[in-house]
Amino acid sequence: MAKKFIDIMDTTFRDGFQSVYGGRVLMDDFFPAVEAAKTAGINHFEFGGGARFQSLYFYLREDAFDMMDKFRKIVGPDINLQTLARGVNTVMLDTGSKELIDLHAKLFKKHGTTTIRNFDALNDVENLKYSGERITHYGLKHEVVVTMMDLPPGCEGAHGVDFYEKTLREILDSGIPYDSICFKDASGTSNPQKVHETIVMARKLVGEDTHLRLHTHETAGVSVAAYMAALDAGIDGIDMAASPVSGGTSQPDILTMLHATKGMNFDLGGLEIEKILTYEKELQNCLSDYFVPPEATMVSPVIPFSPMPGGALTANTQMMRDNGILDKFPEVIAAMTEVVEKGGYGTSVTPVSQFYFQQALNNVMQGPWKAIAPGYGRMVLGYFGKTPVAPDPEIVKIASEKLGLEPTTENAIDIANADETKSLQHAIDELKKENLEITEENIFIVAACQDKGIAFLKGDGELNIRKISEMKKDCEGNTNMGNGNYTVVVDGQKFSVQVAEGDADIQVTSVNGESASVAVPAPKLSGNELDIKALLPGSVWKIIMNPGQSVQEGDVILILESMKMEIDIVAPKGGVIKSINVATNDKVVEGQLVAVIG
């Protein structure tokens, strides 16, 4: 009897990069490995979308559309190239209007995409309807998704087989057009028995002719067992990656699964071990200079208690490294259990996983529920759709008070359509302000990446990758520090140091707000003046108020960007801005003086 053919999608160049390097891999460095993968017989790749869209503009000074075009040219016209989309969020972290959702599908088709895997982290089917319709409208294959995870112990109400059956039935009843169905577990926490029962349930509902897939991660150490359970239950496709971006926080390695299925009645994509060995050798050579964070190679037995997706875990730890707070990571992961439980059990996958992490970070750094991360708050208030279960009423109340928003049951896409800042015209106006070319691609880049999209298009984008050779130069003192704001430690005390060339003024400010002896004098404080300090480390994204302006209590003075969050720095009382002690793009540390109000 012929072996059952299992379609293999190679996630190396999207989820693998995201899970290990936070998406920060330059295209010219990995393209030789794409050629090697094609030679090895791989004909289905995940090559873009998800966080790998924004990361190119945020960290690499590269155009995602250009990368997609070049990838397609390497593999040829017949290979299935797949991207990841987040329902009404598409590849943005916020809800898109209908105009932007339509443009996303149009452009991804134009730039070489064959299939879009389309999910909603809340499993709110309303968020899949319009996005799925536009994907098929432009001639793309639509892979509709049910998102999975295991709940922390003691939690119940969602993420059992009955919940997934309910979600799948809603998808089928909705009339959303689709070509395949994927069960996506970004945290890798779903136990193998539940995976088996879920696939058996789905097969009974959709019949033998519907293509079913499973996506998981090795983060919790059960990915191979989950895939074996899915294969036994009748799955048609699974996702795998190649070393060095496999295992750990990523997908199981292709070689590992070929070995695990030896002697069984499955043909994994027609792949051969010797050819995959050659491909992996080329990939390892291409990525040999990239720093692999140690947590990216590990499995964690505590992840099921605090489900953090592999793709988000390393991105967050890298940001914590950048901000000097990586020592807080274990506390943040521990704090996620409560955040998940009280947030309504949305699946821990982008953007909800980031909301969970941001809120857990706030709870650790500022005290439990003292500050509400904007994304988390808007989620529990209903602005992203309906959560699987109702969020904790007390947390809803706190979020409403902190964000100044009322709870809503309005559809997320309708809210976005009413927001002028999410229109095509708004993006066009932003391009005009900067005298930038108005193309559909540029419009979408600005809509998806906002100020960082503008910075990229102006040639001012940030280059932030970690190569071992560059790190060695830093250690040896051969690389000069660039202009900017740095944190140094003297006798155990942190100082924020501005570095500039030539005769520019510099400032050294201790994190408690007092000026060091070499600093430009800080404003003298009277009894009626109040220091305003950064609550978290990050960078200054936007300065709203200027010295001399009057403010009311609660007015936003400036906005920090920290851990993918926009942190409003507000006036704690009414008065007059006496000084703004930072500049746009400055990096700040926790407790640093940013403004004085009197």
Short description:
It contains 20 helices and 20 strands.
Describe the 3D structure.
The protein is 39% helix and 17% strand. The protein is of the alpha/beta class and 598 residues long. Among the domains are: 4-297, Alpha-Beta Barrel (TIM Barrel); 483-597, OB fold (Dihydrolipoamide Acetyltransferase, E2P), CATH 2.40.50. A nine-stranded parallel β-sheet has the order 2-3-4-5-6-7-8-1-9. Strand 10 (484-490) and strand 11 (493-499) form a beta hairpin. It starts with a strand and ends with a strand.
Write the layout of secondary structure elements.
Elements: E1 4-10, H1 12-21, H2 27-39, E2 44-49, H3 51-59, H4 64-75, E3 80-85, H5 98-110, E4 115-118, H6 126-137, E5 141-147, H7 161-174, E6 180-184, H8 192-206, E7 211-215, H9 223-233, E8 237-240, H10 254-260, E9 266-268, H11 273-286, H12 310-322, H13 329-343, H14 352-366, H15 374-380, H16 393-403, H17 412-417, H18 424-433, H19 440-457, H20 468-476, E10 484-490, E11 493-499, E12 508-510, E13 530-533, E14 538-543, E15 550-551, E16 556-562, E17 565-570, E18 575-580, E19 587-588, E20 593-597
Parallel strand pairs: 1-8, 1-9, 2-3, 3-4, 4-5, 5-6, 6-7, 7-8
Antiparallel strand pairs: 10-11, 11-12, 13-20, 14-16, 14-19, 15-18, 16-17, 18-20
Helix pairs in contact: 1-12, 2-4, 2-11, 5-6, 5-19, 7-8, 8-9, 13-14, 14-15, 15-16, 18-19
The outline comes out as: globular
The strands making up the biggest β-sheet line up spatially as 2-3-4-5-6-7-8-1-9
Give the % helix: 25-40%
Tell me which CATH architecture of the domain at 4-297 applies here: Alpha-Beta Barrel
How many beta strands in the DSSP annotation? 20
In angstroms, what separates the terminal alpha carbons?
A: 83 Å
